[in-house]
Amino acid sequence: MSLTEPSQKKFIAIEGPIGVGKTTLARKLAEYYQAELLLEGADENPFLPRFYQDPKAGALPTQLYFLFQRARQLKELRQGDMFIPTYVSDFLMDKDRLFAQVTLDSDELSLYQQVYDNLTIDTPQPDLVIYLQAPVNVLLDRIRKRATPHEAIIQKEYLEKISDAYMEFFHYYQGSPLLIVNASGIDLVENQHDYQQLLERIQETNSGRHYFNPKPINI
């Protein structure tokens, strides 16, 4: 399919651990598809800095804030402009519980689950989920380079837990067509070749589970 004729996907969700490039890709795809952009808004969460400083004390309010934020965004999507052809998000609602299971103790997780169940979230299923993967050392390097103050204290052990939880989650995921992308060597900002290859795979992926490793340019 030509890159000038985008495939008709109404809702594309991008997922993966911190530092893997979700928001960068979401912004580029939203521009390409002339789509409405839904961002996780981590910078808006007032509890996130204290979570990274003291995970045990900050986990529950951080998680509940994200839950309410994502539920509101998806409700607005359901009620959105019918003339907007596509939505692109840098989060998948199904993964909210993934973080809760990693960060909360048993009592907190039980409370979180009660809140989640009573929200009655009518979550639209994406036409495509893009799962970006990269080794933990690559994630740490990218996090350090972007120099967001509250992320500076993220520990390797925490990233390992999150990355492992993502791998397990998507190993069993069957909710939507899934494109698993090796993002360790992709430069979506400076390397147009990488981006065009990924676009082609996105447009070709309409069902099932697929994997994408970018091919180097032949010189």
Brief overview:
The protein has 219 residues and is α/β, with parallel strands linked by helices.
Structure, described:
- With 219 residues, this protein is an alpha/beta fold.
- It has a single domain (11-212), classed as 3-Layer(aba) Sandwich (Rossmann fold).
- It is 48% helix and 12% strand.
- The chain is built from eight helices and six strands.
- A six-stranded parallel β-sheet has the order 2-3-1-4-5-6, with helices on one face.
- The protein is globular and about 45 Å long.
Write the layout of secondary structure elements.
Blueprint: E1 11-15, H1 22-33, E2 36-38, H2 48-53, H3 55-78, E3 87-89, H4 96-103, H5 106-119, E4 128-133, H6 136-146, H7 156-172, E5 178-182, H8 192-204, E6 209-212
Parallel strand pairs: 1-3, 1-4, 2-3, 4-5, 5-6
Strand content: 5-15%
Please provide the count of β strands.
6
Series of secondary-structure elements, N-terminal to C-terminal: EHEHHEHHEHHEHE
The largest sheet has its strands arranged as 2-3-1-4-5-6
The 3D shape can be described as globular
Average pLDDT level:
87
- CATH topology assignment: Rossmann fold
- Roughly what percent helix? 40-55%
Our count of domains comes out at: 1
Cα radius of gyration in angstroms: 17 Å
Which secondary-structure class do the elements indicate? Answer: alpha/beta
Query: Could you describe the largest sheet, including whether it forms a barrel?
Result: 6 strands, parallel
Low-confidence stretches: 1-6
Distance between the termini: 25 Å
User: Quick one: CATH class?
Assistant: Alpha Beta
Count of DSSP helices?
Answer: 8
InterPro entries: DCK/DGK, Deoxyribonucleoside_kinase, DNK_dom, P-loop_NTPase
Keywords: ATP-binding, Kinase, Nucleotide-binding, Transferase
Pfam families: dNK (PF01712)
Protein name: Deoxynucleoside kinase
